[in-house]
Structures are given as C-alpha cells and as structure tokens.
Amino acid sequence: MALSTAFYNTFFKRNSVYVTSIFAGAFAFGIGFDVAVSNVWDNWNRGKQWKDIRHKYQEADSE
Amino acid sequence: MLQRLPAAALSKAGAFSASRAVSPRVIRLSSARFASSSAASANVLQSLVYSRATLVSATLLATGSIAWYTHLYGTLPFIGEVHASSPAEVGLHPAAYPWSHKGWLDSYDHASIRRGYLVYKEVCAACHSLDRIAWRNLVGVSHTADEVKVLAEEVEYTDGPNDEGEMFQRPGKLSDYLPRPYANDEAARASNQGSLPPDLSLIVKARHGGADYLFSLLTGYVDPPAGVEIREGMNYNPYFPGGAIAMPRLLFDGVVEYDDGTPATTSQMAKDVSTFLSWAAEPEHDERKKIGIKAVILFSTLTALSLYVKRFKWSVIKNRKIVYNPPVDKTH
Q: Is CATH 1.10.760.10 the right assignment for the domain spanning B91-285?
C-alpha cells in the first residue's frame, strides 16, 4: 500500500502536478517510442537505406 | 448482363417464389421434425430463416455480388465461356518477384534506386519523360546534394523572360524537373512509329502487376511464336497486352556501367530500373511503412486497453445475481 500511496501523493494529489506529468509523460513517450521504432526499422533494413550507403559517395565528394 | 442469364434460370426463380407461397406448410413440417430437440431455439432459427427480410437480403446479396463480380471481371461467375482469342492476347501474367521492398517492414534498397536512376538516365530517358520527379527529389534518396547539382547542371533549361523580355538558357538547378526527351507528345509519337512512350513517373502504379510487370516486360522479349505476325517496327513481347509493342528490347548485358561495381546484366538492370520507378511512383513508401508500424502498435494497444476497460466496468453487471423472493403469504 505504501507504494501506491507514494504514487498517489507524487502524481495525483495536486492537479498541477497531475496535468504536468501527463504532458511530460506524453512528450517522453513520443520520443522514446519514435526512437524504439526507428531502431527496429533501421536494424531490419540495415544496409538498404540511404544513410547506410551515403558515406560511399560523400567521401568521393570531399576528395 | 442479365439478358445473358438463360431463360431457365428465370423460370426456376419463378418456381422458387411460387414455393414461397406455401411455406407455412414447410414450416410446420420441419418444426415437427425438430420438435424433439430444443423446440424454442429451433423456432427462433426457423422464423429467422423463413422471414421475408432474410429472403430479401439474401436475394440482394446474391444479385449484388453477381453484379459486382460481373462489373469487376466482365463475365458471370461459374459459367463457362468460349473465346476466339487466347489468354496470351491480354498479356501474360507476370510472376511475383521478391522485391527488396516487398515485406511490411521492408524499405527500398536505395543502392538499387541509385543504379536504377543510372539505367533510366542512360537508356529510358531517350524516349520516356519522368515529369513528376525534380532533381531535388533525388537528394538524400539516391545521391548527395552535390552529385545532383552536377547532374542538373549538365542540362540546359529555358528560363525567363529576363528584363528585356527574352527567354534565355541556363544550367539546371535542384528545383528543376527532369528534362523531357521530346518537346511534346506529338514529337514523341512521330519518332516512335506513332506510339507514345508513356511518362514513367507513375507507371508502376498505372499497370497491373506494378514492378513485377515492368520487370517481366523489360526482360520478356522473345521471338514471336509461329503464326504470330509482327508488323515492321513492332516487337513481340508476351507480357504486353496484344503482344506487339513499339518499344524494342533495350536492356542487354553491359549497356550501362554501375559505379558500385555491380555487374550490369539484363535482369540486374531491369530490377534496378523497376525499383527506381517504384520509388518514383511512391516516394513516400519508406516513411509510410514506418508510420504504419507505429500506428499498428499504438492502435492495437489502445484497442486492447479499451476491451479490458469495458470488461472491467461491465464485470459488476455481468456477475450480478438477481434473486426473486416471492411475497410470503401471510394469511395462514
């Protein structure tokens, strides 16, 4: 019970904290989810995307 | 379409509706037969099955699906047909090839797009325009910005008017669209035995089979079979509807030289140019699939959550027990 009480007291007791943590949570989740999906995507498509082959042509440019 | 139904079908339909008139007898008979099993539910089922609404909706469903099928395929289902033509005349069906971007999670193979651009530029661009692609679209997809600037500058564009009211020539910029091989469609027809080489920007979306068709078409040139006459200037390709196409076979081993050292075989070039044109038709493809993954994850989580919340909220109602206490007779 202590844990849930602590949880209640930190997040739900004050509406200001409650609303702020929802907004901050949505923001953090948005970024985290995006990063996670991008990682899976990049892993799955390793070697196929432009960013995987770009270095071959940029080096040739700077020469 | 309806007049092609045999007359017997119509008279059968009449007989069917006549038998509807005596249906009460049928109901009684069959309810008697099923009386031994749970009679109540059988009755509900039967009144559902024999209701007018069921008849009407089943008829609508049947006519609707036949009409839809006929509209889609042009023939009635399950009725044999005799054709004077052979199926080859509408074009061979292409095989389904394992494109690198085929799966739900697969992005384009951008090295292949880059090679495909080379094939387009060196071969196809002599006849086909690619109106919807600007130089800037290649940046970050198959080429670096510097490379594309060089490519664009090789082309002269007419711009203007300048402050004297005259049009002038200038080298291409990133914002210019890829040059067209002919000034207009009539010039294109005149140079190709009267056939217009279509714009390739959306060709993958514009043909049944998409990239599979394109690959089959480009690699599918063969000698015409015995008895098939091909006019002068036309070529035989079994994948092209009608078989006779004004475009000759263009991809032969080694026609282009790839800068990444990939051997330029016919099938390699056909694959690469098909991938390139798939990208041209659907440049949003990679981003779309990525957003799709996110949407599927989020929406299935939300669906699971709402199903859980529904069960949770309803559990009280679903688990209640209603007890009826009859009033006690107080007279004795």
A: yes
